[in-house]
Design goal:
CATH class of the largest domain in chain B: Mainly Alpha
Oligomer: heterodimer
CATH topology of the largest domain in chain B: Rna Polymerase Sigma Factor, Chain: A
Mean pLDDT of chain A: 55
Strand order of the largest sheet of chain A: 1-4-3-2
Helix content of chain A: 40-55%
Number of domains of chain A: 3
Strand content of chain B: under 5%
Largest sheet of chain B: none
Strand content of chain A: 15-25%
Low-confidence stretches of chain A: 73-77, 103-135, 145-150, 166-180, 187-263
Largest sheet of chain A: 4 strands, mixed
Shape of chain A: elongated
Largest interface: A-B, 51 and 62 residues
Distance between the termini of chain B: 59 Å
Order of helices and strands of chain B: HHHHHEHHHHH
Mean pLDDT of chain B: 76
Radius of gyration of chain B: 19 Å
Structural class of chain B: mainly alpha
Shape of chain B: globular
Chain lengths: 263, 187
């Protein structure tokens, strides 16, 4: 048995959760392999760390309340069932209203002609000087979560009030920490924070201070005021152009970058 | 029925008889069910959702749903795996409803690593590392490490094949360990 195969099985081996043949093969290998013996201690250590963490997390103890609620579940069930037709009616009403509003605003869907793979491309397309004026004025940026992916919609408004929205697709793979480290310290006050969302994406919000200051201001022509090298990739993320036509709150959404962590 | 107190039924009754008592609607059995599994389920849910209040609400709902589903439970069922499956499904539903982003200051770990709050930071590190895992991997890892379920039981609880669970466990462990060691500066 090779080391990698053995190491994949170690957590099961340590719990006696392997068939007899595999268990014996793993035991034989571990007995003769210093690397895998070290790995055994690492697996045990990580298990202990995780177990200790869960054993000490601050849960709220309402055991008695749970018992009393479990004893009277039928009342709640009957109430819930009565609500079903009401909820269905409300859902239908919302769907109809949204459809009516969409028709009234003459929203036209423009699908991108090719795959868009990253934030830098979203940014470049949104501000490419020849492309944006040919479409309209960027008035809104929306971000919608779809499972493990985030879809960014760029809304452009034409002079006659029609709205184009272009569906952009994230999937960038920047090393956010490295990228943040590349931002000059004097600009760091613009970073709101970074975090991890439920699906394992790392996110960074940035540009808050200066964005708010530049709200409702006409952007000056010329090169962007801020240019950051994105994680050593050679791609530059530009920011000042992002502030051109949208408000601070909306910009926070577009300024969110994400990447998938792990394998 | 005489109140026998939490814990006593556990000592004197095998799982199959306990399920029969639950299905018969005995109050003491219900109390025992909650006494036996409330804390583990609550902590398991905390590990998935990282919030005490949400974990509490999902734990309550777990026991309510379990109580409602009792008539359909086979007498020889694995009670623990069954409850964890209900809790997992509720946590997944919660995830689908909510977009949760947990924010940390940029230099949080670097600043606090050597401070007196080391124990707190250690917890944060583990929580942070846990949050890096995709939901499916996190479920498998916690069911193995915390709930003590076997690979076959996890497969039953999450509705996947044993091979898929084994793969999830391997990936979860790599991801968790990488995140933990990086965040703690061990590498």
């Amino acid at each position: 048995m090779e080391c990698q195969r053995v190491q994949d099985l170690l957590s099961l081996y340590l719990r006696a959760d392997l068939p007899a043949g595999e268990r014996e093969a793993v035991a034989r290998h571990v007995a003769d392999c210093a690397i895998c013996q070290h790995e055994v201690t690492q697996v045990q250590r990580m298990d202990q760390i995780l177990h200790d963490y869960l054993a000490s997390v601050p849960i709220i103890n309402r055991r008695e309340a749970v018992v009393s609620r479990v004893m009277r579940p039928r009342v709640r069930l009957a109430f819930s069932r009565r609500l079903v037709p009401v909820l269905i009616a409300i859902g239908l009403l919302i769907a109809l209203t949204a459809t009516a509003l969409a028709i009234r605003n003459k929203i036209i869907v423009v699908e991108p002609s090719r795959e868009v793979s990253g934030l830098e491309e979203v940014v470049q397309r949104a501000h490419y000087p020849l492309w944006v004026p040919s479409v309209g004025k960027l008035t809104r940026v929306r971000e919608i979560e779809e499972g493990r992916h985030y879809t960014v919609f760029l809304d452009y408004t034409l002079d006659d009030g029609r709205i184009f929205y272009v569906r952009e697709w994230d999937g960038w793979n920047l090393d956010v920490r490295q990228w943040v480290a590349s931002i000059p310290p004097e600009d760091r006050d613009m970073i709101l924070g970074q975090g991890i969302d439920i699906n394992g994406y790392e996110a960074v919000l940035f540009l808050t201070t200066r964005i708010r200051a530049s709200e409702n201001q006409t952007p000056e022509p010329g090169p962007p005021a801020l240019r950051w090298n994105a994680g050593g990739t050679g791609l530059e993320l530009t920011s000042s152009l992002l502030t051109a036509e949208i408000t601070g709150d909306e910009l926070i959404r577009v300024a969110k970058t994400m990447r998938k962590i792990g394998r | 029925m005489e109140n026998v107190g939490y814990g006593r039924l556990t000592e004197i009754m095998p799982d199959s008889d306990f399920v029969a008592c639950l299905k018969a609607g005995e109050d003491a059995a219900t109390g025992e069910l909650v006494a036996r599994y409330y804390q583990p389920i609550n902590r398991y849910l905390y590990g998935l959702v990282h919030d005490s209040q949400t974990a509490l609400e999902l734990a309550q709902e777990t026991f309510l749903q379990a109580h409602r589903a009792l008539p359909r439970l086979a007498d020889d069922s694995n009670l623990s795996a069954w409850l964890y499956r209900i809790a997992t499904n509720l946590a997944r539903k919660h995830y689908r409803r909510q977009q949760l982003i947990h924010w940390f200051p940029l230099d949080y770990f670097a600043v606090h690593q050597d401070g007196p709050e080391k124990q707190i930071v250690e917890k944060d590190l583990v929580g942070y590392a846990l949050k890096q895992l995709p939901m499916d991997q996190k479920v498998c890892l916690l069911l193995q490490v915390w709930a003590g379920l076997t690979c076959a039981e996890i497969a039953q609880a999450v509705g996947k094949s044993e091979a898929a669970v084994k793969m999830s466990l391997v990936r979860a462990r790599v991801c968790f360990r990488d995140a933990y060691t990086k965040a703690s500066g061990e590498e």
